[in-house]
Each structure stands twice: as structure tokens, then as C-alpha cells.
Design a protein that fits this description.
Helix 4 packs parallel to helix 6. By secondary structure, the protein is an alpha/beta fold. Helices cover 45% and strands 13% of the residues. The chain is built from 9 helices and 7 strands; from the N terminus they run E-H-E-H-H-H-H-E-H-E-H-E-E-H-E-H. The longest helix has 25 residues, at 200-224. The structure holds adenosine-5'-diphosphate. The site of adenosine-5'-diphosphate (ADP) has 14 residues, from helix 2 and helix 3. Adenosine-5'-diphosphate is lined by residues 42-43, 46, 63-64, 67-70, 75, 125-126, 128, 132.
């Protein structure tokens, strides 16, 4: 990839996008392009706590196994302690209990977060709903929400043609990333399979759920004036637009 770029201001970013739109790919590319950025994933933080057997991990485990969302207070606690242990929040912003207990937003006015470009982050998997977003606003205001949009028909086509090599996680596509030998992994020669959730019917249902749940979240950020939309039919089409806009805003 081309040369890395510098941020001059702290970028606090959220990527919103349908399953299959390539948020993970964009996050990886952003971190390479802007080395001052770090990614914080709510799912990873939770899994880490489960693995270490922390009190929070023990509480969260059953909920996660059932595929439900853990309570907002729990996930907020986790995100805030991660951000503050990285030194990206001022200490006075980290009183989560007071925040959750307070009914009026003016009780907990956000103190200015660090503007050091090294305090830049991309949140992955959080916030998932408007309540989480409002709580976050009062602790550390997000200043860039990117809505990644690819037409559903294109995502569905991609999913239908996606094959994986399960042991390594290598991904192929019978349209644009074909294995050298049809149906076989390039490195090991082992057979490629479909992922369980890569069938079109399941995917349509996931897209619908995403549409319903993301709409209020996007409206929330639209009102705050930090929402921005990027359209593209592939990750390669989206990345340059994303890089350009971040440079314009924070470079
Ligand atoms: P997925 O993309 O499959 O949802 P994640 O790694 O983002 O995977 O999350 C794994 C699990 O962690 C979720 O199913 C949920 O139980 C919990 N979780 C992650 N983020 C949140 C959040 N923001 N709010 C509530 N629960 C969350």
C-alpha cells in the first residue's frame, strides 16, 4: 500500500455498515494508513474478559453464548476502562457509575477529551444502539461516523460466491479472487467450504435486522452533524474515499 499518513487532530471514529460490507477490511487498512489510529473492539474486550475469567467476563459469558447483547452498563464500563487505561480519556470522565445514575445529561458534561492525534481510535461493535451512543457522547464525543454503503444485491452476490479454507480462515471468491485450483486452498490444497452463515436466506435476514437497528443510530449521529456516507461496490472502491476524507478532516 502507498505511504502512511499523519493525523494532526484526534480522530474518534465509528464505522457503521451492513454485515458483509467489509468493515473489518476498512479498519485494517485505516490502521495501516494512519499508524496513530488504534482499533478497539467491544467483542474482543468481552471475549478477553471471558477468557481471563474476570467477574465481568463470568457475568457476560452466558449472554454472549445465547447471542444476545450484554447490558449497556456493562459494555460501557468495559469501553471506558479500556479508553482510559490507554490514556485517551481525562480521569474525570471515567465515572461511569455516576453517569449511569444521572438522569439529566447536564450532570455529566463531557470534559474535553485529549486532542492528541495519538488518542485516535476506531470503535468496532460499539455503540450498537442509541442508548449506548448517548452514554458515549457524554464521556467522549465521537467526531466521525462513517456509514459504509454497498447495494444489498452486490453484498448478496459476494456472499453467494464466497468460499473459505476453514483451518486458516483464507477467503476466496469465485468471481474476483479465485483459487488456483477450483475448490482447493492455494497453500495446502485442502478443500474449500461455505461458511455456515454464508447462505443468501440467512443473510437477507441479517441485512434486514441491520437496517432496522442501524437507522436510529445513524439518525442520532446525523443530528450531531458527524455522520458521513461512503458508497462503493467493493472495499477497493471504498478505501480511497475513506482515506481522502480522513486526511481532509484530521490530516
Ligand atoms: P458479532 O459481530 O458476531 O456480533 P462481536 O464480536 O461484535 O460479534 O460481539 C460478540 C458478542 O459480544 C455479541 O453477540 C454480544 O453478546 C456482545 N457485544 C459486543 N458488543 C456489544 C455491545 N455494544 N452491546 C452489547 N453487547 C455487545
Amino acid at each position: 500500500m502507498s505511504a502512511t499518513k499523519q493525523l494532526r487532530k484526534a480522530a474518534r471514529i465509528i464505522l457503521v455498515g451492513a454485515p458483509g460490507v467489509g468493515k473489518g477490511t476498512q479498519t485494517e487498512r485505516l490502521i495501516k494508513k494512519f499508524p496513530q489510529l488504534s482499533a478497539v473492539s467491544s467483542g474482543d474486550l468481552l471475549r478477553e474478559n471471558v477468557r481471563r475469567g474476570t467477574p465481568l467476563g463470568l457475568k457476560a459469558e452466558a449472554t454472549m453464548k445465547a447471542g444476545s447483547l450484554v447490558p449497556d452498563a456493562m459494555i460501557l464500563q468495559l469501553i471506558v476502562s479500556e479508553l482510559s487505561s490507554q490514556g485517551w480519556l481525562s480521569p474525570s470522565t471515567t465515572n461511569v457509575d455516576a453517569l449511569l445514575a444521572s438522569t439529566f445529561s447536564f450532570v455529566n458534561k463531557p470534559t474535553a477529551p485529549s486532542d492528541d492525534p495519538l488518542s485516535s481510535f476506531i470503535l468496532d461493535g460499539f455503540p450498537r444502539n442509541v442508548n449506548q451512543a448517548s452514554l458515549l457522547d457524554r464521556l467522549v464525543p465521537i467526531n466521525c461516523v462513517v456509514n459504509l454503503v454497498t447495494p444489498p444485491s452486490i453484498i448478496l452476490h459476494r456472499i453467494a460466491n464466497r468460499w473459505i479454507h476453514a483451518p486458516s480462515g483464507r477467503v476466496y471468491n469465485s468471481d474476483f479472487n479465485v483459487p488456483r485450483v477450483p475448490g482447493k486452498d492455494d497453500i495446502t490444497g485442502e478443500p474449500l467450504i461455505k461458511r455456515d452463515d454464508d447462505n443468501v436466506e440467512t443473510f437477507k435476514a441479517r441485512l434486514k435486522t441491520f437496517d432496522e437497528t442501524s437507522r436510529p443510530l445513524l439518525e442520532h449521529y446525523e443530528k450531531m452533524g458527524v455522520l458521513w456516507k461512503i458508497e462503493g461496490n467493493s472495499s477497493d472502491e471504498i478505501s480511497p474515499k475513506l482515506f481522502q476524507e480522513l486526511e481532509k478532516r484530521f490530516g
